[in-house]
Specification:
about 0% strand, about 75% helix, 8 helices, globular
Length: about 160
């Protein structure tokens, strides 16, 4: 069994002549394609109705809250493999990710799911109103919920979410 030099596997030969020009052209084309793709993504975000943008902020807040609460859920899972808070958190996580994915794909089914996810602001306001938190927190949550519903119930949102 012959031992091959390590440099054969680490160093690749450099292209020369026309190969080098083709490599530079393909790299330049790739960077232009990536720039055009990111410009198209920025344009699609800019074309979104405000209600959809607000919904995406709401979905990210839910995902951040789930991420912060996972420590508590995992600690409970150590003592009992199945717990009610764990099931609720996992269902909320799946529902939020699925709805956000459909909204980003502009699917028609996302409209009802987004309204359903936004309706979770109602129990949040009630829960914050009866808990010992700063009095401005339930008011802020209620105002955010009203803005979210007002934004999602506008006709341009239904038109935006129109792909079958």
């Amino acid at each position: 069994m012959a031992i091959l030099p390590l440099s054969r596997f680490i160093f690749k030969p450099r292209p020369s002549g026309r190969q080098a020009i083709r490599t530079i052209d393909s790299a330049t084309d790739r960077s232009w394609r990536e720039a055009l793709r990111s410009a198209a993504m920025v344009a699609s975000i800019r074309d979104m109705p405000a209600g959809i943008r607000l919904f995406l902020v709401y979905a990210l807040l839910i995902l951040a809250g789930i991420g912060l609460s996972l420590r508590f859920v995992v600690d409970q899972a150590i003592s009992a493999p199945v717990s009610l808070p764990g099931i609720v958190v996992m269902i909320l996580l799946a529902y939020t990710i699925f709805t956000t994915t459909l909204v980003l794909q502009r699917k028609q089914a996302a409209y009802g799911l987004a309204i359903g996810l936004a309706s979770l602001t109602v129990p949040l306001v009630v829960l914050l109103a009866i808990s010992p938190v700063h009095p401005a927190l339930p008011v802020f949550s209620a105002a955010f919920g009203l803005l979210l519903f007002r934004g999602l119930l506008r006709p341009e949102v239904r038109g935006y979410l129109s792909e079958a």
